[in-house]
Amino acid sequence: MATDNISTIDNGQGQSLSVVGDSYRILISGKQTGGNYAVIDMLVPPDGGPGPHAHKDMQEMFYVVEGEIEFKMEGGKYKAKKGSFVNIPLGGKVHCFKNTTDNIAHLLCTVVPAGLDDFFQEIGKPIDTGTFLPPPILSIDELNKLKSIAEKYGQKLYPPDFLGD
User: Fold this and answer.
1) Of the candidates 95, 114, 117, 101, which has an alpha carbon nearest to the alpha carbon of residue 41?
2) Beta-carbon contacts of residue 98 (< 8 Å; ≥ 6 apart)
3) DSSP string, 110-160
4) What are the C-alpha distances in Å from 51 to residues 6, 19, 31, 36, 135?
């Protein structure tokens, strides 16, 4: 709810989407911030997380609220635990993350400028907050369509093994 240009959101509010098997809740969208930024609350189940990708014109920041996530980036890996912060700078560095534990990980993701939220809204499936759907198994045609949609939002997708093991 917006009051005098101050936005507030309660627990469970915001649009929740299933994206690659994860549960993403848009806390504040680019539409609400004039495109300046968006904040996404991410619940990542065991083995969840996106494949390698890059977005050269967007800075992406993650704060680990709960759990543990393994980030893979050009140049190495980083195990982000509760309280960790990861900054993906502008410039298109390839990165991905995966929950390698048996527990759900909880991240806050901020993107500057906004746009990732629009991508998630286009490819995601609406869900109840905290609900998980299995990751979709995509045909070649569906994968090509996903790559095309990603490119529309300034992202480039890479093969799953792009960053190695």
Assistant:
1) 117
2) 47, 48, 49, 69, 70, 72
3) EEESS-HHHHHHHH-EE--TT---PPP---HHHHHHHHHHHHHTT-EE--T
4) 35, 12, 26, 25, 12
Mean pLDDT along residues 11-30: 92
Residue 3 has pLDDT above 50, yes or no: no
Is residue 142 within 8 A of residue 150, CB to CB? The reply is no
**Residues 6+ positions from 60 with CB-CB distance below 8 Å:** 87, 88, 109, 110, 111, 116
Chain centroid to Cα 159, Å, comes to 17
Q: Does residue 74 form part of some domain?
A: yes
Domain CATH number, residue 145:
2.60.120.10
Total domains in the fold of the chain: 1
Quick: pLDDT tens for 127-157. Answer: 988 888 888 888 889 888 999 999 999 999 9
C-alpha distance from residue 38 to each of 25, 83, 119 (Å): 11, 20, 12
β-bridge mates for residue 53, sequence order: 95, 157
162: in domain? no
